[in-house]
Amino acid sequence: MSAPFEKDVLRRATLDARKAFVRSLSDGAKARLEQKLAERLTALCASASVVGGYAPLGSEISPQLAMEEARAVGRIVAFPAFHDPGKPFRFLAGDPLSPGPFGMMQPKLSAPAVEPDLILVPLIAIDKRGTRLGRGKGHYDRALTRLRKGGAKLIGVGWPLQRIDVLIPSDPWDIPLHAFASPDGLEWFR
């Protein structure tokens, strides 16, 4: 079991680095990197039936181009939505046009619930074992536990600097990811 302090220190340092990196990008450079990310994800998204993604918050890289490509080839795209912020979110098919909790955008709660077989997961950092460092509230870990058991591929998505060499302390409830996608490429774990 890791000390929360270690994760908090690592979370703060890596989040600050991500924010600084994104601030250094021009709008054009950011758009080109997000296009390269979409290119890295094209084959994966095309081989899925339902692609779960996210609407980016703050300095998170946007998977929206990859999601649009998936939709263009007939895939269902879905986003996290909370009916109750105290319970795990579900993926709903539809665009994230409604304000949800925690500053996020989500589909209308009347949209159909779906089970993605490919999930693009936001993160603050990820290590070589696929251990993900998120915002620390456990929302993704709770939601992904069941989906991973059901066979969903979990792909962390981020800027290249978010793949760190330091091992992230892992707790029993942390759900390891299968791979990490960035504009630089796709790295599979285990």
Automatic annotation (TrEMBL):
ATP binds at residues 7-11, 132-140. Its cofactor is Mg(2+). Substrate binds at residue 60. Its EC number is 6.3.3.2. Gene3D superfamilies: NagB/RpiA/CoA transferase-like. The keyword Protein transport does not apply. It holds the Pfam family 5-FTHF_cyc-lig. GO terms for molecular function: 5-formyltetrahydrofolate cyclo-ligase activity; ATP binding; metal ion binding. GO terms for biological process: folic acid-containing compound biosynthetic process; tetrahydrofolate interconversion. Keywords: ATP-binding, Ligase, Magnesium, Metal-binding, Nucleotide-binding. It catalyses: (6S)-5-formyl-5,6,7,8-tetrahydrofolate + ATP = (6R)-5,10-methenyltetrahydrofolate + ADP + phosphate. Belongs to the 5-formyltetrahydrofolate cyclo-ligase family. This is 5-formyltetrahydrofolate cyclo-ligase.
